[in-house]
Design a protein that fits this description.
Strand order of the largest sheet: 5-4-3-8-7-6
Radius of gyration: 20 Å
Shape: globular
Length: 270
């Protein structure tokens, strides 16, 4: 169960990445993370690649308009061709547009920030967000990437992975601790994900941001797989009696309606 998989269902243990392709993709990833651009020196420091190789890649990508070079600030940024390629990725836009009215409904009912995210590798990416009117709100944005094991919404997405896919993604990966409550071992994460599957929702008790509690539930697609997650993030000071029950009730209600829009049907016992 999962919206996007790293592989098509099988894990090729003998696969050897192509170095030049990996470097091109790494440059795109770095410049996606640094929206204001990076200089040649900064890119060299971040990659550690030979200067001549880095210059050749940057020059080639800029000439083909995959990167843009600002001659005044002397920085490289994502180019128009990458933007054009991104416009063909309609799936994320479509599900965000479909879900937005339901996010607004949940935000109105809970008076708290509500978010929609999908899984990419071991990170959750926020693709839609509706902010509450409170002055104390979660500082996140559409397009932000966060390690999935450290968030409520990420854990419902990870819970949708098969055991084989989970092991492939987290093999040899160290879990960085962001707060005192962050999951820090793979075994602990496996245990938590088993509970998420059994209960149908996830809770994040300040595991990525101290003082923020998050409740999340999965959204299913026509194949019965987890395709996205919806969550609400609440400053822990506002989590009083009944808040968790109400949050999960509202999220499950809107998630079931979004899932139905995507063609998901709850199987009935024969």
């Amino acid at each position: 169960m999962e919206v996007r998989t790293v592989s098509s269902g099988s894990v090729e243990s003998d696969f050897v990445p192509v170095k030049s392709a990996e470097r091109v993709l790494r440059l795109i990833e770095l410049l996606t993370e640094h929206r204001n651009g990076l200089s040649f020196t900064q890119l060299h420091d971040l990659t550690g690649w030979p200067r001549s190789s880095l210059y050749g890649l940057l020059r080639t990508m800029a000439e083909r308009h995959h990167l843009d070079h600002d001659p005044y600030r002397q920085v490289y940024r994502i180019g128009v061709r990458v933007w054009e390629a991104g416009q063909t990725f309609n799936w994320g836009v479509e599900i965000a547009n479909l879900a937005l009215p339901y996010l607004e409904e949940a935000c109105e009912k809970l008076s708290e920030t509500v978010q929609l995210a999908v899984l990419d590798g071991v990170e959750n990416i926020y693709i839609a967000k509706v902010d509450a009117s409170h002055s104390l709100r979660l500082d996140s944005y559409v397009g932000a990437r966060i390690p999935a094991y450290a968030t409520g919404i990420g854990k419902v997405l990870l819970a949708g992975l098969s055991d084989v896919e989970f092991e492939a993604r987290f093999r040899d990966l160290d879990l960085k601790r962001f707060t005192d409550t962050t999951i820090s071992t793979i075994e602990e994460l496996r245990h938590v994900l088993r509970r998420v599957r059994a209960e149908g929702f996830s809770v994040d008790n300040g595991e990525y941001t101290v003082g923020v509690t998050c409740y999340a539930v999965p959204i299913m697609d026509v194949a019965g797989e987890v395709t996205a997650g919806i969550s609400t993030s609440i400053p822990s000071a506002r989590v009083t009696d009944g808040v968790e029950t109400r949050a999960i009730e509202v999220l499950m209600g809107v998630a079931s309606r979004i899932s139905a829009k995507l063609g998901y049907q709850v199987s009935s016992a024969v």
